[in-house]
Amino acid sequence: MKRVVPSDLDDVRAFLRLQPNRAMFPLSNLHRFGLDGAAPYAVSMWMSKVAGQVTGVLSVTRSGTVMPNLPEADLDSARDILRETDISGIIGPADIARPLADRLGLSGRSATLDRDEPHFTLDLKDLQCPDGPATLHPLGTADPEEMIRWRVAYCREALHMSPEQAQRQGEVDHDTYIAADSHRVLMQGGKALAMTGFNASLPDIVQVGGVFTPPELRGQGHARRALALHLIEARARGVTEATLFSASDAAAGAYRGIGFRQIGLWTLLLFETPQRITP
User: Fold this and answer.
1) Is residue 143 situated within a structural domain?
2) What span, in angstroms and rounded, lies between the C-alpha atoms of 189 and 137?
3) What is the pLDDT of residues 193-203, one digit of tens each?
4) Known Pfam families for this protein (predicted)?
5) Do residue 76 and residue 137 come from a single domain?
6) What is the pTM of this model?
7) Does 156 fall in a domain?
8) Is residue 167 part of a domain?
9) If 0-12 CB within 10 Å is exposed, 13-18 middle and 19+ buried, where does residue 238 land?
10) Helix, strand, coil percent content, the chain, rounded in steps of 5
11) Per the CB 3.0–4.6 Å rule, which of 4, 56, 76, 152 could disulfide with 45?
């Protein structure tokens, strides 16, 4: 595998675009932060080619998250590339993320999150929106203290963060989401019912992330209506596809209820502290 340079990016994007729902994080991070940038989520990339065609891409954020879109034949090369890297996590399709973790000797290391979640996709022409009186609003129109509490609760529940880490992350995320205009709140009569958002976006496809309903309001269809309305908004600006992975059976049922279908499993392996691969 060779290090990707700017002149390679058209070929790299074309390869990742063959299955964009498996590559939204590297595609979106590349779009937002550029190649080899200084931001925590900026990516460095390596690629393999056969007969002049890209066959695999390894992406690593500046903060140490590894995102593989590789054939298994490239795992030894990926191991050589990552030998001196402080790895904070591995995320991606389970059919390659898990073999990579094994090849790096990182399976079973102490992690804050280590699970495979159902991975879904939806052609937005097949979207089904539940009826209801509640309407969707930008995150910045809701009470900021309440929204930060929700995000902290999400970080604790879905990402298994410590209380202190979740509080810090929740505050940062709230400001980031407002600046990016990436998240929405379902409201009725001034009362916030559910939050939804996109954690990766391209002109024609979005990846859903951060869907949350407080426990006392669950089971009433708020999350599915919030997400459906947000996807209708995205569809109106030209988005044709959405993808996501689900943290619970209840959430998966809600997603299926508006038209999502499962296409595989998605690995989230986030280490408690950065790891080096086994020599």
Assistant:
1) yes
2) 12
3) 999 999 999 99
4) Acetyltransf_1
5) no
6) 0.91
7) no
8) no
9) exposed
10) 40, 35, 25
11) 4
